[in-house]
Here is the input.
Amino acid sequence: MVRFSGKFAFVFVFILFASAVTAQVLMVRCDDGSSKEFLSSPEKINLSTISSSFDRNVDTIVMVHGFMTNFEDCKGSYTTTVNSLRPIIGRRNYIGFHWPAKVLWFGTGVENANKTGAYLVHVLNEITKWYGGNGRKIHMLTHSLGGRVLLNTLEQNSARYVCWGTCYMMASAVHNDAFQSAFPGTNELPEKIYVFHSERDGVLKYIYSLYYFLFGNGDRSIHASPEIQKFMELTFEEQIAYIQNLDESMQRGCADISSELDQQLVFAIEEGRSAMGLYGACCTPKVENTNLSDVVSSHTYWENTEAIRRIAGTM
Here is the structure.
């Protein structure tokens, strides 16, 4: 008989415990491995890994990341989140979905988020088939531009065949009236939608200001002036820093907004406050807003243990 000393017994038990609680996240991706380009069609998505480990006797949670996230980063974030979720909500199929978000230009990120809907709905329909009508549900947990991915997924014709459960939208980078304007009626398919927001999310404020500047005005001629063209040539990080500096100068009362660029950006900053992830969604049937400003002070949710625990409390 093998005997362990107190020290080695503790280490042995700790290893067993750690292996038991470490989250298993089943990953699926719709990119070609570069985190930048899509597979040629949704049917090209490799589902073998998740199908071989899928448990049809429990519900499924599908997690969708936001902008500027590669495969390894999102997998790590999902694992951290599930380690906080599982002790509260128990056994589920935890699936991490990766889409091409690691792109230099935010406009490309928005376009890719829009395109991803057709890929994600394919995955959700396949999962629905695996359940075989046994009453189990698919729940969505999204962050930032991942909220746009979800809304585009709900717009797909085949979305009506998904066994929808509840959707949990964190820091969504969409307009607060998205359920009435850009994505009307998408609130009807899920059983319920929780919108988690924080007015302290300064990153989202500036990201969404940039989004509104790029896409909020249908007249593309506004971007024709040399100073605006120069701004458009900046990197994403440089554009965000410029907007932040302008906003902070305005708050101090020392901003010079005589240029056409700054005038348009000031307007965009005001519109940026309408991001759903800052103050919640406009009143919509089946949609409930939850203010997490007391525990969320940035754009980070996946690694925010207290925020995830609060969200788990609604599951």
In short: Residues 106-131 form the longest helix (26 residues). The longest strand covers residues 164-170.
